[in-house]
């Protein structure tokens, strides 16, 4: 989304922080995974998720670190985590086909790239929250509901995962990719947002990625000390969500003007 963000984080690894909302999402993921693996019954998902959060919090404390508070209230953490986990079990789980794989890590070679200047291999890697031959599932915790039309037209993750899965021979196009979304509040509801990725989406995301990499490699080769592409037209560009804000836009624009509500 913002290549400069990736470059600056690599240059300033000390800026990496554990955000509250991301940690809450990770805790809910732990509960979902435990249910799908048959390690706990769905009725225990709330307790399991809250415990996962508290365990991670203690680990951070023992490392002398704390949770970076963004747009949540610490006194609501437990009940929001419990509510989201229960929303998944109630509203989403009944629609998830059984027999798939949880936390499916993949590395998939996409292309050999060769042009006038560069020669390299393009690989996509990531982790599917749940893979089933009928489709790919990804769990999201969010402040508000997703708009299906926006995800169908703009979402990149689904195109990357679908291309990787088809290259690995796991599934054929057209690929159904489902977002299982839980709203972050005390009376959470679950929402399933399906998008479809075709072979043409796969070709486009591959071409788009190669164009981006070629541009970045060209800058790195000829102007190694200059900034990469600086994209501030998105939610993550704010003091709240960008860990390198102070090294970038934050050194020009006061944070009050960038009070983004939520990372998508
Ligand atoms: S402040 Fe904005 S433009 Fe700068 S690195 Fe972060 S996201 Fe990118």
Backbone shape: globular
Major sheet: size, sense and barrel closure? 5 strands, mixed
Rg, alpha carbons: 20 Å
Total helix count? Answer: 7
- Ligands and ions found: iron/sulfur cluster
Regarding quaternary structure, what we see is single chain
Count structural domains. 2
- Topology, number of strands: 5
The string of secondary-structure elements, in order, is: HHHHEEEHHEEH
The assigned structural class equals alpha+beta
What level of helicity do the residues show? 25-40%
Averaged pLDDT, please? 93
- Read across the widest sheet, the strand sequence of neighbours is 1-2-3-4-5
What is the strand content? 15-25%
Distance between the termini: 12 Å
Low-confidence stretches: none
């Amino acid at each position: 989304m913002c290549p400069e963000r990736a470059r600056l984080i690599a240059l300033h690894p000390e800026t990496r922080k554990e955000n509250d909302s991301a940690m809450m999402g990770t805790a809910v993921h732990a509960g979902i995974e435990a249910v799908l693996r048959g390690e706990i019954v769905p009725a225990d998902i709330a307790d399991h998720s809250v415990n996962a959060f508290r365990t991670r919090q203690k680990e951070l404390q023992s490392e002398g670190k704390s949770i970076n508070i963004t747009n949540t209230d610490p006194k609501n953490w437990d009940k929001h985590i419990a509510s989201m986990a229960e929303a998944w079990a109630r509203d989403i789980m009944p629609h998830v086909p059984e027999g798939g794989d949880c936390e499916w890590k993949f590395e998939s070679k996409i292309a050999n790239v060769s042009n006038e200047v560069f020669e390299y291999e393009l690989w996509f890697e990531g982790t599917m929250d749940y893979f089933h031959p009928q489709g790919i599932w990804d769990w999201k915790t969010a402040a508000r509901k997703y708009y299906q039309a926006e995800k169908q037209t703009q979402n990149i993750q689904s195109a990357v995962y679908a291309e990787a899965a088809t290259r690995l021979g796991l599934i054929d196009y057209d690929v159904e990719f489902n977002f299982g979304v839980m709203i972050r509040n005390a009376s959470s509801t679950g929402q399933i947002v399906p998008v479809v990725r075709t072979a043409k989406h796969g070709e486009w995301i591959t071409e788009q990625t190669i164009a981006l990499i070629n541009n970045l490699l060209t800058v790195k080769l000829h102007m190694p000390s200059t900034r990469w592409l600086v994209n501030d037209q998105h939610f993550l560009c704010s003091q709240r969500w960008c860990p390198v804000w102070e090294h970038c836009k934050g050194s020009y624009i006061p944070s009050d003007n960038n009070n983004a509500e939520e990372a998508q």
